[in-house]
Structure prediction request, 164 residues.
Amino acid sequence: MALDDFNAEQPERAAAALRACNAAPSFPGTVLAGRPFADADALVARAEEVTRALPWDEVATALAAHPRIGDRVTGSSAEAQASRREQSSMSSADEEVRTALLEGNRAYEERFDHVFLIRAAGRSPAEMLAELRRRLGNEEAAERAEVTEQLAQITGLRVRGLVS
Prediction:
């Protein structure tokens, strides 16, 4: 949809489109309160700003909508389609990296009690694995900050795709 269409869209429909970018409950309404947006950059900046300000319980809700890195994403929802695009580099991952990511995901989830979230777009499987291993050493507060930042980056990419 074009930005002008997004700015003029009925609130319920615009909110549904935004929910596919970030499943945090307050995200769509808070972003929509900034309409109309002068350009796509302003919309993306607002979406990222709103995401970075989310309380942890809402970030956790958004995390629940994200598949594990390395999992084969199924379904036809907007979220599933976005995840497949974002994780497209995983199709070239060798078995050793895939196995290490699966093991790393398990260790991460045991440690932090949620999925490992990383902006996969533009990263190789080996880069994502290195980040997973590095972040396993984070304290909980530092990791929550990193997760929120990764969610903001993912949200920004998805919102830009929404109005491109």
Q: What stands out?
A: The chain has nine helices and no strands.
